[in-house]
Specification:
This protein is mainly α and 500 residues long. The chain has 18 helices and no strands. The longest helix is centred in the last third of the chain and has 38 residues.
Length: 500
């Protein structure tokens, strides 16, 4: 056992001395995956013009990624557990880089859609392997707080950072570089992973639950597809209700099958745990709220305030900075001292308060006085939230279930993003149209009323987003009952494993 300063927990004797460099590699891969959920958004108008995409088809640049990512996460998580974390991590990096290069070189819409779907498929392998590597590498509560602080800061701020990076690359290079940029990042991460990271060998006699994979992944794909189509078609359309019904049916059969198969894709004891289930639900509700915020603020800054793509991206910088501050300077320092719900609930209240401030937006609002304070509050609140969710959901999981547990948490994020985009956008569109109908009396004022209608729709949806965020805080308070980790006690540290 290494010596420790007074008042500090000693570092475990079997801890990997290169674990902090390994964290850098894991964080780099995680940042790449999270960035790609939003980096293409600002580049989309340029890509649409360049490749001749129709307005109806352009959504598939985003949807193809989220469908493959969200639908295949459970399968990717179980493959991580069966094949080995480091192997799947490297496989995910190589595949993600290749798909990114293919997308950047796209000569038509179909090629770009296919490349984005491949990116999502490899991200579904990469994301759970990264989180499970982190959860099994850092088991000491004090170190775990610091490591998850870095991971949570990137996971929370990566989406907002994607807008900044996407705006800069699109304006000064080309939309294609929003995809090409992943290649050098992945190369660095692969070299680092092979040098610094350790995994475990595949267990003897391990088998994949093929029926469970088909049922679970099929159900998630239908569900994510339904939410994606609801945004453009409306909630009562057959192409929305049909996938919803199919998704719910397949997932119900999936749960039944998992309770009977000897080696399930998703061991049900993972979601039966009250605290862990509370973390999954809290994460899903928080992401519903956050993705609504990203959507509305992107359009508000560009369509209402007239910001350029770069300026709109930079406007998210305070949100990113406050998430990083909340994660690394507050949450990471308190995680091993207080129960997770004492970080989660106040974090949700802070984030909801920021969203409530944004409901006061008008077409003439000032960024500095009305938008900036709200973004800082939201960022600090989410900074308090991400680390306790990630750390608590993955704590104490058996090594052979680490990948699928991480995948379940990532799945809750993807489903939350799909629900948030579809649900809140529908509320905003409906409310905005009703406002324009009620107030468009003078044709000379049409442009002004249309802009006011947009903002009215956003503010109505932000009321809903704030309410959903408060609901997430309530769920965390009632369900996440874990206490503070004991000082110096590892989070049920697993036995040493053979290297993969």
């Amino acid at each position: 056992m290494n010596a420790a300063r007074p008042g500090e927990a000693a570092t475990p004797a079997n801890a990997d001395p290169r674990r902090w460099w390994g964290l850098v590699i894991i964080a780099l891969a995680q940042l790449m995956v999270v960035l790609d959920a939003t980096i293409v958004n600002i580049a989309l108008p340029s890509a649409q013009r360049d490749l001749g995409m129709s307005d109806g088809d352009r959504q598939w640049v985003i949807t193809a990624y989220t469908l493959a990512f969200g639908g295949l996460l459970l399968l990717g998580g179980r493959i991580t557990d069966l094949v080995g974390r480091r192997r799947t991590f490297v496989l995910g990096l190589v595949g993600f880089a290749a798909a990114s290069a293919l997308g950047g070189a796209a000569t038509g819409p179909g090629m770009l859609f296919g490349a984005r779907a491949l990116q999502g498929a490899f991200a579904a392998v990469l994301a759970p392997s990264a989180l499970s590597l982190l959860s099994t590498t850092f088991t000491d509560p004090r170190e775990r707080g610091k490591a998850f602080g870095v991971y949570g800061a990137l996971a929370g701020s990566g989406s907002a950072t994607g807008f900044i990076v996407g705006g800069l690359l699109t304006e000064y290079l080309s939309w294609r570089w929003c995809l090409y940029v992943n290649v050098p990042i992945a190369i660095i991460a692969v070299v680092g992973a092979l040098t610094l990271l350790h995994g475990r060998a595949a267990p003897a006699g391990a088998r994949l639950d093929v029926p469970g994979a088909l049922l679970g992944c099929g159900g998630l794909v239908f569900l994510v597809y339904g939410f994606g189509e609801a945004e453009s078609r409306g909630w009562t359309d057959a192409f929305v209700l049909g996938p919803f019904a199919a998704g719910v049916t397949l997932l119900a059969v999936f749960v039944w099958w998992q309770s009977r198969v000897p080696r399930p894709l998703l061991p049900l004891h993972i979601v039966r745990d009250r605290t862990r289930a509370g973390c999954f639900l809290t994460m899903m509700l928080a992401v519903v709220s956050m993705f609504g915020l990203f959507l509305f603020m992107t359009y508000y800054l560009q369509a209402v305030l007239g910001y350029s793509p770069v300026r709109a991206g930079l406007a998210f910088l305070p949100l990113t900075a406050s998430i990083v501050t909340g994660s690394t300077q507050i949450s990471a320092r308190l995680l091993h001292r207080v129960p997770p719900r004492l970080l989660l609930a106040p974090g949700m209240v802070l984030a909801a308060s920021g969203m409530l401030l944004l409901t006061r937006m008008t077409v003439d609002s000032s960024y500095a006085t009305e938008v900036l304070p709200a973004l800082i509050l939201v960022g600090l609140g989410m900074g308090l939230t991400y680390i306790p969710v990630f750390s608590t959901a993955t704590a104490g999981v058996a090594p052979q279930d680490a990948g699928v547990t991480s995948a379940t948490l990532s799945t809750s994020q993807q489903v939350g993003a799909s629900i948030g985009t579809a649900l809140l956008n529908t509320i905003a569109t409906t409310s905005g149209a009703a406002y324009v109908t009620a107030h468009l009396n003078d044709p000379a004022q049409q442009a002004r009323v249309m802009r006011e209608g947009l903002v009215h729709g956003y503010t109505v949806a932000l009321w809903w987003a704030a309410g959903i965020m408060l609901l997430a805080g309530l769920v965390a308070s009632l369900m996440v009952t874990a206490g503070a980790p004991e000082h110096g006690a590892p989070a049920r540290e697993p036995a040493p494993e053979p290297v993969a």
